[in-house]
Structure formats: C-alpha cells, structure tokens
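Example record for the data management plan.
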Amino acid sequence: MAKRKVHRRARKILGEEPVALVWCGLNRDIPKPPKDVHRAAGKGRLKPGHHWMVVTGMILGCAVFIPWMLLDMFGQWLDRVMDPRTRRRPAPAPDPAPRFADADNPGADDQEQSRDAASSGPDGLFDGDWNLAAGQLLLRWYGHSPNRKRLVLLTGDRVCVAASRGRRLSPTKADDFGIVAEFPHHEARVQGTPGTHTFLLAFPDGSWLRIGNLTRGADADAFLRTVSA
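Corresponding structural encoding:
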C-alpha cells in the first residue's frame, strides 16, 4: 500500500483528494509501430529504461559470456575439422517464396501485423489502431518517463496518469512524481476487469488501452472496486 507521502504528493499535484489511486504499468511490451506513425509521434522510446546497476551487470555478464561462447564454438569447429569421419551435410531446403506487400499500400502489411499483435488475445495491450487516442498515448508512454510504473489517479471529474522522472522507483514511498497525462471524464473512462487484476482506459473514439501490473494491496482493491461500481 502507498505510504502517506504518496497520498500527500497526489493531493498536491491534483489540488484535491483523489477518489482512488493505484500504481500500475503496461502488462505487455509495446509492439513495434509502423515507421511513419512512430516518426510522426516524435520517435519516442518504446521500452522502459534500466537502472545503471542493471546495465553494468549486463555489460559485465557479456564481457565474461561472449569470450567463453566464442572459445566453445572454436573448440567445436576444431573438433569437426580434425575428425576424418566428418561428412558434408546436405544443403538446406530453399526458403518459401516471399510474400510481397500490397503494391498500392506498401505499409499495409506492417500496420495489419502491428494491429493483430497488439490487440490479439484476452490480454491484448490496446485496440491496435495507432492513430486513435489509445495508440497515440502508447507512443508517448515511455517518453514521459523511462520507469515502468505509473500512478493512475481518479477524481470526481478527471482521470490522471502520473510518473516519476527517475529510472528507479519505490511505488510505496515515491514523492517525486508528476502528472504526464490528464483526461476529463468525457474524454476517457476507466473500466474494471474483474478477476484479471487489470483495467481498461477507454476513449470516445472506440480505442482502449489495457493496464495491469497493479501493485498488490488495499490501494489496488479499492481502485478496482471503484471503477467496477
């Protein structure tokens, strides 16, 4: 459950007491959008950032693993070369004929594949249309903050999304977050999804964004009860 400093900060940035709030995040990676759509939205980042300690660990791991892997591959190759019983393997079968894009709309296939990947299944990330409200919000999601966590706040007439600028965040204690997106109730509504611990942020144009990874505890329970009422 969020500490008092989180609620104090929420009251300060909202100018009023929130009806409900919860720390949450995207429940899936953002699929790759069409290049022209991504470019038009400012080519913002589509992945969360990593704390410097994680990056350092990855670099050190690569420095140890890659030389070991190369030595192992060289050893296997040397064994094959020195073994007189080694026989030439048959050539692999040719790849099937490539599928060509629609000549009238070269980007049509990319857009359809992106739409299908985003909206397929019961845990689809969004409706799949990058040009609608949910898609445009998603294109700028990590541009506001590289951190995975977002604080969604409800008031009597607004839905607000807040984030911390830092890469590292303690959701229960954070007090440096600010509002990065705000919608009056006639522009966005929150719909609870009972039993899935997720909710939808739905827009009047028919688009929607599924948000999950809710921080467990009283805040999440109260939030889901509020939006499901």
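Summary line stored alongside the record: The CA atoms of residues 8 and 203 lie 29 Å apart.
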